[in-house]
Specification:
Blueprint lengths: L18 H11 L9 H16 L3 E21 L2 E4 L1 E2 L11 E3 L1 E3 L5 H5 L7 E5 L4 H9 L4 E5 L29 E5 L1 H12 L6 E21 L10 E7 L7 H20 L7 E7 L8 H9 L1 H7 E6 L18 H15 L23 E2 L33 H20 L7 H12 L13 H20 L2 H20 L20 H7 L6 H27 L2
Parallel strand pairs: 5-6, 6-7, 7-8, 10-11, 10-12, 12-13
Antiparallel strand pairs: 1-2, 1-9, 3-8, 4-9, 9-11
Length: 559
């Protein structure tokens, strides 16, 4: 018998992290601008493949069709004066004469901001870094263009597509229909103030964007624990390889960390209980996670049967990156992450939920995930999407933004996390914590009782599964317990991180905790007896049934 408590971490060769070697590799790939599907991307990937071959991994380059959008030249004219600007991936290109329209300020671009005024045919002026959510709202509202005000003087490249992965016949209609540009904080503030004074500046957006289908590569590097084993479970360790500009921090340092962790892990292979598969994605920056989504769809069966966990890496090792407490992690893996981060840095992990971003394309399959953007800067006064430094998604993301000591520190954290996942007798996945979070969410839904949908039975079912898990850890042998943990992942992770469809990808838009509960949340807020409540009750009952079924499936895994 073995229990999670008994699966203490073994000492790994942390002292073998070679920051000088990492910097040599980084300096090599830092010479390439790695646009998705480009020759330079392929050359950089070939170098990484050669290194991984030398470490003993079996490597393959997969090519697939991807819908890629590469921004070109852009400018904004205001009353004939030219402002410095950039356009964005998935923006519509402007006609030769540019796109002109009445300028309307929409604040942060929330649904409420758009609902307050008619922006049909207008150019909306929105605060902050460009996002898919604002692009979707602007497109639905009939705007001709969107002009974003950067939070400072730097202009950040972004992809505006709300479609996760390649568009399909059902999702292509949600691609942006607007011409989009970003200008500096100072230029944006001047426009905002002109509108406050009642002026009507003449604004024209010029944007060249090259969007279409092209072949993009994925480098897969694999090493099994037991070459003779059939259907061996494995850990997926991934990061994107494509970049904005030279992209040394985002995501060159992640690629180099993957290589270094793989090098050391291979030397410790005798202790592995699971295999290791690394994926270097394309299409992250210019295709809204097109490669990881394609890989999830194409290899769904293998991933569903064998993949234990997904460890993602992005933007590590930067100068000034002293904050590790914000590393996003799934609830069931937070204990592992917290333990390793505390050991390696002395910092306490806050337990930040993973947002809908990165290459987290595997939640529908039921694969728990940890990390994304990792080590961060001390938050400043500028409101950024991530506290990764002013150079994030700009031409300033160069070698001088990297601190070798921070790079080695982050590599040691990833190394120990991977070592634990590869070698712990019992998988360090804590479903009890995940079920506690579900109970907390169910506890907020008392209002559904007024509509005839009581959730007491669902809460009792959740608590019973949590208690049964505790018993199973003392009752089941290691192999049966690990198999049960994997089956429970497949039942619970889709509830926790998707709207419930295991075979499709939710949009690249924010999701709450346990989004499957959203129909119940909406019903709880509705007026009892209203027509709205009667309509909402239909979806609410279906959501309740979905959760109850998943809990039964998870319980059945315990035998």
């Amino acid at each position: 018998m073995s229990t999670l408590a008994e699966a203490a971490p073994r000492t790994v060769a942390l002292g073998d992290v070679d920051s000088a070697l990492m910097m040599r590799h980084l300096t090599h790939i830092a010479q390439y601008v790695k646009l998705s599907g480009s020759k330079e991307e392929a050359e950089s990937l070939a170098y990484i493949r050669q290194v991984m071959d030398g470490y003993g991994y079996a490597t393959t380059v997969l090519e697939h069709d991807a819908y890629i959008s590469l921004p070109g030249a852009a400018r904004v004219t205001v009353d004939g004066r030219i402002l410095t600007a950039i356009t964005h991936s998935m923006s519509h290109p402007s006609p030769p004469e540019g796109t002109t329209g009445r300028l309307v300020h929409v604040g942060d671009g929330t649904d409420a901001d758009f609902a307050r005024q008619d922006v049909t045919g207008c150019i909306v002026l929105a605060e902050g870094i460009a996002t898919p959510a604002v692009a979707l709202s602007a497109s639905r509202a009939g705007a001709a263009g969107q002009l974003h005000i950067s939070p400072h003087e730097h202009l950040h490249e972004m992809c505006l597509s709300p479609v996760w992965g390649n568009p399909s016949e059902t999702t292509a209609a949600t691609l942006p229909t607007t011409v989009a540009c970003t200008i500096s904080q100072a230029d944006g503030a001047a426009l905002r103030e002109a509108l406050v004074r009642g002026e009507a500046p003449a604004v024209t957006l010029h944007a060249a964007v090259d969007t279409g289908w092209r072949k993009t590569p994925i480098l897969v590097a694999e090493l099994p624990a037991d070459p003779a084993a059939k259907d061996e479970p494995f850990i997926l360790f991934s990061g994107h390889h494509d970049t904005w500009h030279f992209g040394v921090m985002d995501n060159g340092t992640a690629n180099i960390t993957m290589m270094e962790v793989a090098r050391i892990c291979a030397q410790l292979r005798a202790a592995w209980r699971r295999g290791l598969r690394l994926c270097f994605w394309s299409g992250h920056s210019h295709g809204r996670y097109s490669s990881s989504a394609w890989y999830a769809d194409t290899h769904w069966d293998v991933l569903e049967r064998r993949c234990v966990a997904h460890v993602n890496i992005d933007s590590v090792g930067a100068v000034g990156a002293s904050i590790l407490s914000e590393a996003p992690t799934a609830t069931e893996l937070t204990g592992l992450a917290a333990e390793v981060i505390a050991k390696q840095s002395g910092q306490t992990l806050r337990g930040k939920r993973i947002g809908r971003g990165g290459d987290e394309s595997f939640w529908g399959i039921g694969i728990p995930a940890m990390f994304m953007a990792f080590s961060e800067q001390v938050p400043g006064s500028v409101k950024m999407r991530h506290a990764l430094g002013w150079w994030w998604h700009t031409p300033g993301d160069l070698l001088d933004k990297i601190d070798p000591a921070n790079l080695a520190r982050d590599a040691r954290i990833y190394l120990e996390v991977l070592d634990r996942l590869l070698t712990d007798a019992v998988l360090p996945i804590d479903h009890a914590a995940q079920l506690d979070s579900l109970l907390a969410e169910l506890g907020k839904l008392g209002g559904t009782e007024a509509h005839g949908i009581a959730l007491d039975a669902l809460a009792a079912q959740t608590a019973a599964l949590r208690d049964a898990l505790g018993t199973a850890r003392t009752r089941l042998d290691v192999d049966r317990l690990n198999a049960a943990i994997l089956r429970i992942c497949r039942a619970l992770v889709p509830l926790d991180y998707t709207r419930g469809d295991r075979f499709a990808h939710d949009p690249a838009l924010p999701l709450p905790a346990w989004p499957t509960l959203d129909p119940l949340r909406r019903l709880a807020a509705a007026a009892p007896g209203s027509d709205e409540a009667r309509l909402l009750a239909v979806s609410a009952r279906q959501a309740r049934n979905r959760v109850a079924h998943a809990l039964r499936e998870a319980s059945a895994a315990l035998g």
